[in-house]
Amino acid sequence: MIDARTLSFIILNRCDQEKIPVDTILTEVVDLHNQMDKRDKALMTSIVFGVLRWRNNLDWMISQVSTHQ
């Protein structure tokens, strides 16, 4: 069984690469991994939405110190 952190990474990558809404991917993953403990599902959801919530701020902060254009 894949752990919640790995699934979070997979979900975020798919959301980025395939331009699919995150809730669609989350539903799909939860359905595929229906044996996951509810605490792991909660952790996965929290990680995914936490990253998405902070993403713009983090991107801006990185752009302020990065020399890469």
Features:
3 helices, 69 residues, mainly alpha
Walk me through the topology.
Blueprint: H1 4-18, H2 22-32, H3 38-65
Helix pairs in contact: 1-2, 1-3
Helicity range of the residues?
over 70%
Structural class: mainly alpha
Number of helices: 3
Count of discrete domains: 1
Ends distance? 39 Å
Percent of sequence in beta strands: under 5%
Rg over C-alpha atoms, rounded to the nearest angstrom: 14 Å
> How many strands, what sense, and barrel or not for the largest sheet?
none
H-E order? HHH
Strand element count: 0
What sort of overall outline do the alpha carbons produce when their principal axes are compared? elongated
Average pLDDT, rounded to a whole number, is 93
Which stretches of 5+ consecutive residues score pLDDT under 50? none
Can you offer a commentary on this structure?
This protein is 78% helix and 0% strand. It is mainly α and 69 residues long. It has one domain (4-64). The radius of gyration is 14 Å and the shape is elongated. The mean pLDDT is 93.
Short description:
The chain has helices spanning 4-18, 22-32, 38-65.
